[in-house]
Amino acid sequence: MTDTTPLTGDSWRRTALYAVLVLLVVFYLMPLWTGLMASIKADVLATAPFLPPAPGGFTTIHWTRAANALAGGLMNSLILAIPATILSALLGSMAAYGLTTLDWRYQVPVLMLFIAGIFIPYQAVLIPLSKFWASIVPISDLVGIVGLQGWVGDLIGLIITHVAYGIPICTLLFRTYYKDFNDEMVEAARIDGATTHRIYRRIILPLSVPMFAVTLIYQFTQIWNDLLFALVLVGPGAGAPVTVPLSQLGASLSEVGFGIRMAGAFVAALPTIIVYVLFGEQFAKGVAT
């Protein structure tokens, strides 16, 4: 027997909520789905962009070509992003510890300088930075003394630049996290004779794991996806991070390679997805605090 009970007000609201949620899921996933379909079609323009490939039209050639073209850039990005992310998070944690837990003069002006550093746009420092690494500290020439190639020096300069740019935001995030710490715990350690360094290493650092997950994911994503600094300070060549060859992938005078571009975008984004999966639980805890 068919149930003909009319929908109540709560049922209508619940149905409308589910409908809105489904529409949002479709809205956010449709670009990814369309890109994925374009990357596995032999002829991207043969069917509508969001439709699966026609029978006989499936191919993995775009993924193979993209992986081969971006292999060197992926390795350079790993060399760039891993140390830059760890250093900026660690130095930001130390700075926040000194600005929050310790008591010394001029804390507020120093904190204001850190906060001001967050709002400096990349474009405002491009010319000074390029002149600094080219003339004042020509690190690409200095590494030649020890037998390394110039692009290694360019990559080191890019790492230092991203560390310097990432410290302010990491400091602010860690300071917000440390302000909720129990002062009695740190004070008890001081009474027991623990030094400032020992308190940070034995108490503050182990309790900072959730916020480290937040800053590591944030910084890794920012550094990995950066194109502006990479293009100006390193440029195309042996030391170029993955975003530089990705911007040139599939471009030619005769056609636009939509398939290889979409495949390249997925290949380049894969490491950031892996980082989110590895630190997702700690990231949720850090955001919730």
Detailed description of the structure:
The chain is mostly helical and 289 residues long. It folds into 2 domains: 1-58, no CATH class; 60-288, MetI-like fold. Helices cover 74% and strands 0% of the residues. It contains 12 helices and no strands. It has helices at 9-39, 61-100, 107-118, 122-136, 139-142, 150-178, 183-191, 196-207, 209-225, 228-234, 243-248, 258-288. Helix 1 packs across helix 12 (258-288) and helix 2 crosses helix 9 (209-225). The longest helix is centred in the first third of the chain and has 40 residues, at 61-100. It starts with 8 loop residues before the first helix and ends with a helix.
Number of helices: 12
Low-confidence stretches: none
Number of DSSP-assigned strands = 0
Tell me the domain tally: 2
The radius of gyration is 25 Å
Coarse shape: flat
Major pleated sheet: none
- How would you name the CATH homologous superfamily of the largest domain? MetI-like
What structural category do the secondary elements indicate? Answer: mainly alpha
How is the CATH topology of the largest domain named?
Answer: MetI-like fold
CATH class of the largest domain: Mainly Alpha
Helix content: over 70%
Q: Average pLDDT, to the nearest integer?
A: 89
Tell me the span between the first and last alpha carbons: 51 Å
Would you list the SSEs in sequence order as H and E? HHHHHHHHHHHH
Question: Any idea what the CATH architecture of the largest domain is?
Answer: Orthogonal Bundle
Pfam families: BPD_transp_1
Organism: Halarchaeum grantii
Membrane topology: Multi-pass membrane protein
InterPro entries: MetI-like (IPR000515), MetI-like_sf (IPR035906)
